[in-house]
């Protein structure tokens, strides 16, 4: 973990830092809402926690598939704090969690404390989220439709297989944002400067090339309108580990619910290259 990755060389603005901490406190107190547009300028992260026996498989899976699974932090078995957010508790500070057993979604809960007690050897991974570069897109005057419309980002399972690792295999999941055709190159350039939070898109245009047949029916999140002159642009998504959990029949896992992220104390500039 470098100083830059913890924000030591890129201090957050007091207002943004306070907004992120206030959001985490609200989620800890029971608020449930998607996190796109929350605490602009702060890095957001996907989360997956697995028993120690599966941790090496997942670390290797992430290393082999860095586009959808860029690891920001790995937390020791049984621990629930991260250097990315002082005082945060990974069991309570995400708005909504998913509980997986034998590859099937069992429940969504607002507090995961009991799950860490049930499995005291959980190893937690925080994975970069594309919500992080949405603030720079907006600052450039590129609309982020799901934020404008107050809905969750649309996410889709694809036909693009990830490279397997150990017992884990599965397909890439992508998020989609409609971008005016004349601004696509700029959106690619802006997001490409943030490789630790998925970076540049994996596909622009025809969704069928990714095995997606109906943009109005996302696998996760909410559908968004696509206006005339706009092109669907697809970024690798940190829900990809959940697809691996399903495909691989992982006995037990805890993840964030898609679109309900962990907000860190690290400004997005820490991951800008």
Which class do the helix and strand fractions yield? alpha+beta
Mass-distribution shape: globular
**For this structure, what is the CATH class of the largest domain?**
Alpha Beta
Summed up, the helix count is 7
CATH homologous superfamily assignment of the largest domain = PSTPO5379-like
Radius of gyration: 17 Å
- The tally of domains stands at 2
Query: What do the pLDDT scores average to?
Result: 94
List the uncertain runs: 1-9
* CATH fold descriptor of the largest domain: PSTPO5379-like
Head-to-tail CA distance between termini: 16 Å
Strand content: 25-35%
Report the sheet with the most strands, covering strand number, pairing sense and barrel closure. 7 strands, antiparallel
| H and E order | HEHEEEHEHHEEHEEHEE
Describe the structure.
The protein has 273 residues and is α+β, with helices and mostly antiparallel strands. It has 2 domains: 4-128 and 248-268, PSTPO5379-like (3-Layer(aba) Sandwich); 132-241, PSTPO5379-like fold. Helices cover 23% and strands 26% of the residues. The protein contains 7 helices and 11 strands. The protein has helices at residues 14-28, 52-64, 113-118, 134-139, 145-149, 184-192, 240-248, and strands spanning 42-51, 71-75, 97-101, 104-109, 122-128, 155-161, 171-180, 203-204, 230-236, 252-256, 262-267. Strands 1, 2, 3, 4, 5, 10 and 11 form a 7-stranded antiparallel beta sheet that branches. It has a 4-stranded antiparallel beta sheet with strand order 6-7-9-8, with helices on one face. The relative contact order is 0.25.
């Amino acid at each position: 973990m470098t100083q830059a990755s913890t924000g030591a060389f890129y201090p957050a603005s007091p207002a943004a830092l306070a907004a992120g901490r206030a959001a985490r406190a609200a989620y800890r107190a029971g608020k449930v809402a998607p996190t796109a547009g929350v605490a602009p300028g702060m890095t957001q992260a996907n989360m997956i926690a697995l028993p120690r026996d599966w941790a090496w498989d997942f670390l290797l899976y992430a290393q082999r598939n860095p586009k959808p699974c860029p690891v920001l932090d790995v937390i020791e078995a049984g621990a629930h704090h991260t250097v990315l957010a002082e005082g945060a508790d990974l069991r309570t500070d995400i708005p909504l969690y998913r509980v997986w057993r034998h590859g099937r979604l069992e429940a969504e809960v607002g507090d995961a404390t009991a799950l860490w007690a049930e499995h005291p050897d959980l190893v937690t991974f925080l994975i970069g989220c594309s919500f992080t570069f949405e603030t720079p897109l907006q600052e450039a005057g590129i609309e982020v439709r799901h934020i404008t419309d107050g809905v969750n980002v649309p996410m889709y399972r694809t036909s693009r297989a990830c490279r397997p690792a150990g017992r884990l295999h599965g397909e890439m999941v992508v998020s989609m944002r409609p971008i005016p055709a004349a601004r696509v190159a700029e959106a690619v350039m802006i997001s490409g400067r943030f490789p630790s939070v998925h970076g540049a898109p994996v596909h622009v245009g025809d969704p069928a090339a990714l095995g997606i047949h109906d943009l109005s029916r996302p696998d996760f999140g909410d559908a968004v309108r696509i206006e005339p002159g706009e092109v669907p642009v697809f970024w690798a998504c940190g829900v990809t580990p959940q697809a691996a959990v399903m495909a691989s029949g992982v006995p037990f896992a805890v993840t964030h619910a898609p679109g309900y992220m962990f907000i860190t104390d690290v400004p997005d500039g820490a991951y800008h290259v």
